Amino acid sequence: MEGADYKVKLDIFEGPLDLLLYLIKKDEVDIHNISISRITSQYLDYIDTFRLLNIDLAAEFIVMAANLMYLKSRTLLPRQDQPPEEDAEEDDPRWELIRQLIEYKKFKDAAGFLSLKEVEQEGSFAYQSEKPDLPEEPVSLAEVSIFDLIRAFQNVLKRFEESHDLGDIVDDRYTVADKIEMLLFRFAPGQAARFDSLFETATTKAEVIVTFLAVLELMKMNQFVLRQTHLLGEIEIERRLHTAAAHIEEEEFEESEA
To answer: What is the pTM of this model?
Structure first.
């Protein structure tokens, strides 16, 4: 399968603390009450998915995975067998990680607040005509965590594995380039569909993976955008209205495949 040799490089990739905060928000738990066992399992699931998709992982993701497994092993030990921690002020082995997450969240929230103020200032002198209240526009992928997209892919892959016999012979007839061409043919500019509908006709796990890799590539080419109406909501894929930049990127991709 071409996907096995296809390296994915995402400019919008975030760090390991972003992933942990995303998992905490997804589970709707207080940051002080995180379950090391649960969050470690979820974190490692994401790492496995990144590897499945051959996504380049920064070293800090692996370091965090090792740290989480260490913390998990400590929580399983009886209190009298806990290793000494000279700098620890608390008996709870989660405390250092919780402190890191709280501090990181403070800086991230502050950065988000300043970014919002910058946007407000940019339009502060513009004349705004009176307009009726309109429904809120869907949030673009640039404003939605990449982890939402990976989560959606994990759900698709899980449903596929539950409904298909993975012992069947693997059909490697599709490449990433094939799927890119098929998606461009399927979607007219401005046309949209549910993200999971892209995989309804897939017959093998390899095809599911290659289709997802094609979506990532089309996003990088500025041909497709993914939208989400609310946090953890259903994701919708839409082909952008054709732009000069997107046309150039599409032509460059075709030339590289020639």
So the answer is: 0.70
